[in-house]
């Protein structure tokens, strides 16, 4: 859908929303909004995807436990239906078309312009990975971190993944997050488990100049509730 609009659509940033073309890439929407200190509330991991493409699916990422998927963060849409009709829809206006087009796999119309909700872009972030060898502890901690209580006082972003011993050490690195020494420690941990698998919680805590003095204390309080393998916490600023 990259040719939609033939280059005529613009990304227009307002105070709490951005209008984009269905063909724009999320990474370009982010670049445009960051110039105003703003960012969409919900993301996918990979940003080289079109806005219309993920809004036709769901758009799930580490912020979904707070804000819902991307389709829950849209104010209105311009849609071209299968009969060639073009119109604007929202929760209050032609809402059958609005809710059908969002997550509709392109079956109910082509999204040409979504109006996407924005929030203040995080200024700084503590980025954390926690390693687990026990899947039950891993899932229990994920559920804790996305629970209502933790949403009020915990991370702003939470995801998880499973990694096999051989995928840690062989093939292209999926992330520059870990140093060589970290990878070797993690591979050692994975080789001790019967399955050769370990699990990661990936999380982020946002902060700014005002909250900077207390962010380490807040992070420490959240980590103290979790059951990752002792010593297997990795943090980046
Ligand atoms: C590397 C990679 C990482 C991903 N990561 C995530 C992730 O973290 N979270 C997540 O939720 N999803 C993720 N996805 C899945 C992604 O949401 C879907 O593949 C989505 O369709 C991608 O959009 P696209 O721009 O590639 O769409 P396309 O491949 O161009 O289109 C996919 C389908 O979406 C529909 N469509 C596309 N544009 C429009 C439009 N403007 N109006 C109506 N229908 C349209 C069409 O039915 C089309 O067949 C990932 C995909 C990839 C390739």
From TrEMBL:
<dbReference type="GO" id="GO:0009690">
    <property type="term" value="P:cytokinin metabolic process"/>
</dbReference>
<dbReference type="Pfam" id="PF01565">
    <property type="entry name" value="FAD_binding_4"/>
</dbReference>
<keyword id="KW-0274">FAD</keyword>
<protein>
    <recommendedName>
        <fullName>cytokinin dehydrogenase</fullName>
        <ecNumber>1.5.99.12</ecNumber>
    </recommendedName>
</protein>
<dbReference type="InterPro" id="IPR006094">
    <property type="entry name" value="Oxid_FAD_bind_N"/>
</dbReference>
<dbReference type="InterPro" id="IPR016170">
    <property type="entry name" value="Cytok_DH_C_sf"/>
</dbReference>
<dbReference type="GO" id="GO:0071949">
    <property type="term" value="F:FAD binding"/>
</dbReference>
<dbReference type="InterPro" id="IPR016166">
    <property type="entry name" value="FAD-bd_PCMH"/>
</dbReference>
<keyword id="KW-0285">Flavoprotein</keyword>
<dbReference type="InterPro" id="IPR016164">
    <property type="entry name" value="FAD-linked_Oxase-like_C"/>
</dbReference>
<keyword id="KW-0560">Oxidoreductase</keyword>
<dbReference type="InterPro" id="IPR016169">
    <property type="entry name" value="FAD-bd_PCMH_sub2"/>
</dbReference>
<dbReference type="InterPro" id="IPR015345">
    <property type="entry name" value="Cytokinin_DH_FAD/cytokin-bd"/>
</dbReference>
<dbReference type="GO" id="GO:0019139">
    <property type="term" value="F:cytokinin dehydrogenase activity"/>
</dbReference>
<dbReference type="Pfam" id="PF09265">
    <property type="entry name" value="Cytokin-bind"/>
</dbReference>
<dbReference type="InterPro" id="IPR036318">
    <property type="entry name" value="FAD-bd_PCMH-like_sf"/>
</dbReference>
<comment type="subunit">
    <text>Monomer.</text>
</comment>
<comment type="similarity">
    <text>Belongs to the oxygen-dependent FAD-linked oxidoreductase family.</text>
</comment>
<dbReference type="InterPro" id="IPR050432">
    <property type="entry name" value="FAD-linked_Oxidoreductases_BP"/>
</dbReference>
<feature type="domain" description="FAD-binding PCMH-type">
    <location>
        <begin position="1"/>
        <end position="121"/>
    </location>
</feature>
């Amino acid at each position: 859908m990259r040719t939609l609009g033939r280059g005529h659509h613009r990304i227009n940033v307002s105070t709490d929303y951005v209008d984009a073309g269905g063909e724009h890439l999320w990474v370009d929407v982010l670049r445009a909004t960051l110039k105003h200190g703003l960012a969409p509330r919900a993301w996918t991991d990979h940003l080289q995807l079109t806005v219309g493409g993920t809004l036709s699916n769901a758009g799930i990422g580490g912020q979904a436990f707070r804000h819902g998927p991307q389709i829950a963060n849209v104010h209105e849409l311009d849609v071209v239906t299968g009969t060639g009709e073009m119109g604007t829809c929202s929760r209050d206006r032609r809402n059958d078309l609005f809710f059908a087009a969002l997550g509709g796999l392109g079956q109910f119309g082509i999204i040409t312009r979504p109006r996407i909700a924005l929030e203040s872009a995080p200024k700084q972030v503590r980025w954390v990975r926690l390693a687990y060898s026990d899947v039950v502890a891993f899932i229990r901690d994920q559920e804790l971190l996305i629970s209502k209580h933790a949403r009020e006082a915990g991370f702003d972003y939470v995801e998880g993944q499973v990694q096999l011993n051989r995928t840690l050490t062989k093939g292209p690195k999926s992330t520059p997050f870990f140093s060589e020494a970290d990878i070797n420690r993690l591979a050692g941990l994975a080789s001790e488990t019967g399955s050769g698998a370990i699990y990661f919680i990936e999380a982020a805590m946002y902060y700014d100049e005002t909250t900077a003095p207390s962010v380490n204390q807040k992070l420490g309080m959240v980590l103290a509730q979790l059951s990752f393998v002792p010593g297997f916490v990795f943090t980046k600023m």
